[in-house]
Amino acid sequence: MKWIRKGAAVLIAVLALSFVTFLVFQVLSGDPAMLKLGTNATPEALEALREDMGLNDPLLVRYGRWLGGVFRGNFGESLQYKVPVSELLWQVLPNTLLLAGLSILMIIVIAFPLGLLYARFPGSAIDRTGAVFNQTMMAVPAFFLGLLISVVLGLWMKVFLPGAFVSYDEGLGACLAYLIFPALAIALPKAAMTVRFLRSALLTERSKDYVRTARSKGLTEGKVLMLHMLPNALPGVRTFIGVIISEIIAGSIVVEQVFGVNGLGRLLVRSISNRDYNVVQAIVLYIGIVVLLVNSSAETE
Amino acid sequence: MAAGGTGCIILLQKGTGMKRKHSFNFICGCALLLLTVLLIAGGLFLSPYGADDMDAAARNLAPSWKHIFGTDHYGRDVYTRVAHGVLTTVAIGAMTIVIGGIFGTLVGALAGYIGGTFDAVIMRINDCLLAFPSILLALVFVGLLGPSEKNVVLALGILFVPSIARVVRSDVRTQLQSDYVVNAKLLGASGSRILFIHILPNIRATLLVTMAVGFNNAVLAESGMSYLGLGVQPPKASLGRMLSEGQSYLRSAPWTVLFPGILLVIAVLGVALLSDAYSGNQGDTGSPSRIRARVSRKLAEAGYGVACESCAVKPAGAEVADGETCEDAADEETSADAAAKEEIIDADEALADGVVLCVRNLAVGFERADGSLQTVVKDVNFTLHAGERLGIVGESGSGKSMSALSVMGLLPDTAGVTGEILLRTDVGSVNVLRCSKKDLAVLRGDAMAMVFQEPMTSLNPTMPIGRQMREMLTHNDVHLPKEEQDKRLAEALIEVELTETERILRSVPKELSGGQRQRVMIAIAMLLRPRLLILDEPTTALDAETREGILKLLDDLQKKHGMAVLFISHELAVVRRICQRVLVMDDGHIVEEGTVEEIFEDPKAAETKQLLQSLAGTDFTGRMHWSEDAPTILSVKHLHVYYGKRRGRNPLNYENKVLENFEMELREGEVLGIIGRSGSGKTTLARCLAGLLPRQAGTIETEARIGMVFQDPYGSLNRVKTVQWLLEEPIRVRQKKERGMADALTSREAAEQRKREAREMLSAVGLGEEYADRKITELSGGQRQRVAIGMAILGKPDILILDEPVSALDATVQEQVLALLADFHDRFNLTYLFITHDEAVMKRMAHRVIYLKSKQGNSKG
User: Fold this and answer.
1) What is the pLDDT of residues B643-665, one digit of tens each?
2) In this structure, which long-range contacts are made by residues A222-227, counting pairs with CB atoms below 8 Å and at least 24 apart in sequence?
3) Mean pLDDT across B574-601
């Protein structure tokens, strides 16, 4: 029952999202017929095309038709590249998913040990040095971090060649090896946030009565931390990581640009610059749905 | 980035309270911001170059004295451009938070205050907007309207509204629940007055922190967008733009990227550190082990813990501290530890035969915020023999719990401790205070165990009871077979008279009642048959019936197993029942020690007499005059109060029935007592009579003005205001209502009247003039309650509802506040409705009593 209600809520949210997307890109963004024919077209030709494209139909009819197309994976044609939007998406989507996956993995691998370590020795030298490092990492924008990584690891230490991105279909291993670096740029600031959250969640638990009870039973500090405090802090951390995941998607928009990764973000930015709204709407819809799904599954009751 | 960031910060903010302004964070934050300002000023006013001056001869020059940050590919001076760029970025950030801050606060405050459907709709939209990464929305926004600085500001500003609104709204809602807002409502303050004068000042801190976070997010989002070419347009300098232009020359001119980026980090970091210092996040408290060492040393210097010669005990302060420091650094088995162990065994001869615990010259202290020493336990000495039941009584803050916690080695991290605590174990006597944490862990559970006050919170809420018990069996690397363990656990539960052991072992604490949980706690403590059982107010949180059962159980268990019991309590009656010998503590000292008979029949110390007297209590009922035939001023008929959702169509069928068919009459001048357990609807009734609960059936007839005094004066008084302001508030509200009437006062007269009446009340409640300018946080509990009573009476009520007015106070303070209430009854012609769970207090105050049983009607007495 709980899941059905949750599912229904997500479905309604997705529909609302699709309607807003439709409204913004199909109605408010300007006249598609004008875009297709250019400003020199005669009024008669424009009118004919409008009739032909169904632009004169009532709003809801147009929405229904559009939604039907979307369900069949038909987002229309890219105005810039003259190919179906879905084809464009399939070229770049796996790259972005790989990048996001790697970033999440890194965040978890970095954040959990550090957060636990700081919470184990609060106020100690390790903790305070860590806090300064954390603060600094949180202040660095991902794209600047990306540039730093490119300069230091790429140009000076020659660990990789910035800009020489290999797409997933040209070689998965090479693709992943390259994506490590943009993923690092995305993950470090977010990992710092997660460390900070985990630490403060653990310290909140630390002052609770049951922790004192656990100590009075003779458990060592390490066991109290891992067996008692951590399980009680986890639900909050889970919600937090849900928030982080939607931020990773946003972060990748800029970082893909820095590293020349041929992904969703890069396509989005290019399409916005080119006013290629069919592509933009598909990407916005896609990211929106991902965000909705992640958030509703990370939510704690 | 921004939206999620704010979401994170909302989560981060949970659990922060203290403000520590001149911390490391504060100093660093200020330094970084100062650096930023100086750099901007230098670039704008001192630099010989313009931001857009191109010099074809000076392309991509490395940093030098001429161009301290070098030049870019157009030959422009990077330093000058960075200064302009930071300025642009900061200006955009500032405009964003102005737009978002103003609208966000308004939307949030209104949604929170109005509530209902309006709130639900606004917040639904808000949550949807917040769920999306705001840089994505900003990109779409700018994509539609075209890239420009103005559109970026507009987009980021609008997108900042939801996050501010959410914070403000949730704060307003929390504040609305708090007693001080209820109090203001009762005094008749208008909605806008409550919102803007009472509530908003209380959420200023959160608001500021959220704004700072929003500023940073806006700065980062703007530079991101400018980097993508969708923000500030060239040739205007902006940091993001400079980074994207410099990217093509990473190899030949990395400085064109590095300097703008570093400046961006400095500015953002400065703001983040300052907001952290303000919110008290990650304040630098110093390493706990070092604090303990320092405080312990201070204690020793203050002369505590220095032994008298006859005891032949060395002062332990400094050595204890050093030992702690070592093991905190995670290297357990050091030579220092080994040496400490030798010393532990040395103590053996100090314990005479039959002695289980010997506490000598124990002192416990904390460091105040100004660095001075606050000693909470001073030179405490006592011995506990095998099988003996020793009680420690005293009011809260007398140091009795701290003494018990030091025996277990469970003092808070920041406490310093000196003296000796010698404990008998299987291998000999040890000094608990010199044990490493590892050794302590071995002692706990095995040699000594403890049961705490709050059974509701003392068990891990997510771990099954069975596992929590099993931990006790296995923690010292004892490996019993699983079946043997299960048998022991079941036996332990049966021993504390719990049935259905299978079910209990599988359940988590919330599935058990308070009494059952306390039994489980006792079972855990008794699992390893400790020599010493410490009970810290084990029955205080329980109701009378359950308390009786637990006391009997403890009595039986002690008789059966013969362990020594250290029983901490403020309830004299309980101590009298359980213990053989009693220590009376006051202000950290032991003021008297003796057998139960000696203490209760023939107390010597003044503090003991006072404790005993407040237990007996003065009868105030005679002092408050009333007559049986006085007119009824409030009558309640067929009152039903429900919470939760309605079931079906019946208007009276709700999930949660709090009061059903309640009836009562209140006559002028009487003190009517309402008594009942927690959860019996006492507070609901109070709020209902005060007209604060909308959902009710039945009638409440009265023409009287109703005032109210709450249980917790800390919650019922606005913390950001002074005592003077609080006392003036009821008069101010009244004056506002009278404004426009013929005989209204001029504003100066009104101010003088307020000041005069407030001062009169201040002295009437027994507080000196010097308290007028203090805040509630600077007063003691009793003083706060005095202010709360004064404030209620200044609202000129006919009926004063007293909702557990003394339950949070110590016995002696309780006595004083009750006396004050008794005096005011006749002085201000009041009728009291006195609500409490404490029968003893009720007997001394009420003329007539109504017993409230949970979820049903009432019986009169």
Assistant:
1) 665 555 555 555 567 777 888 88
2) A222/A120, A223/B475, A225/A116, A225/A119, A225/A120, A226/A116, A227/B463, A227/B471
3) 90
Nearest-neighbour CA in chain A from B132: distance (Å)? 7
User: Residue B696 belongs to what H/E stretch?
Assistant: strand B696-702
A275 with B143: Cβ contact below 8 A: yes
Token pair in block for residue B735? 């004056």
**Summary mean pLDDT of chain B:** 81
Instruction: Fill in the amino acid letter for B575.
Output: V
Rounded to a whole number, what is the largest CA-CA distance in chain A?
Answer: 87
Distance from C-alpha of B164 to C-alpha of B305, rounded to nearest angstrom: 53
Using a CB-CB cut-off of 8 Å, the residues of chain A touching B133 are 246-247, 249-250, 287, 291
Which residues are bridge partners to B639 per DSSP? B662
**DSSP secondary structure, B190-245, as one string:** -HHHIIIIIIGGGGHHHHHHHHHHHHHHHHHHHHHHHHTTSSSPTTS--HHHHHHH
Residue of A nearest to B289 (CA): A124
Q: What is the mean pLDDT of residues B31-41?
A: 91
| Rounded distance between C-alpha atoms, residue B325 and residue B332, angstroms | 11
Q: Strands, DSSP E only, in B570-687?
A: 581-586, 589-595, 632-646, 654-667, 671-676
DSSP B747-769: HHHHHHHHHHHHHHHHHHTT--G
pTM (2 d.p.): 0.80
Alpha helices in B534-582 (DSSP H): 544-561, 572-578
In angstroms, what separates the C-alpha of B407 from chain A's closest C-alpha?
11
Substitution target from A29, A96, A116, A144 for chain B, most B beta carbons within 10 A: A144
Average pLDDT over residues B350-376: 83
Question: If DSSP codes are grouped into helix, strand and coil, which group holds residue B587?
Answer: coil
DSSP secondary structure code for residue B742 in this structure? T
Torsion sign (Cα): B34, B39, B40, B42: positive
Identify whether the C-beta of residue B324 lies closer than 8 Å to the C-beta of residue B414: no
Q: Rounded distance, CA B572 to CA B588, Å?
A: 18
B758 pLDDT tier (thresholds 50, 70, 90): very high
Across the strands, what pairs with B360?
B420
Closest CA to A18 of A293, A286, A240, A301: A286
Per-residue pLDDT tens over the stretch A66-93: 888 888 878 778 877 888 888 888 889 9
Burial level of A35, CB count in 10 A (0-12/13-18/19+)?
Answer: middle
Distances (CA, A) of B784 to B189, B379, B421, B639, B765: 21, 31, 38, 33, 10
Tokens coding B96: 């964003």
Instruction: Give residue-wise pLDDT tens across range B116-169.
Output: 888 888 888 887 777 777 778 888 888 788 778 888 888 888 888 988 898 888
B613 vs B623: CA distance, rounded Å:
19
**Ordered strands of the B373-385 beta sheet:** B373-385, B355-367, B416-425, B428-431
Report how far residue A27's alpha carbon sits from residue B223's, in angstroms, rounded to the nearest whole number: 30
Crossing angle for the helix pair B255-279 and B24-41, to the nearest 10 degrees: 140
Above 80 in pLDDT, residue A173?
A: yes
Quick: pLDDT tens for B306-315: 543 333 333 3
Name the residue among A279, A288, A287, A284 with its Cα closest to residue A88. A279
Q: What is the pLDDT of residue B349?
A: 52
Is a pLDDT exceeding 90 seen at residue A9?
no
pLDDT at A226 over 90: yes
Q: Residue B13 pLDDT more than 80?
A: no
Size of the A and B interface in Cβ pairs below 8 Å: 222
| Amino acid B566: pLDDT | 95
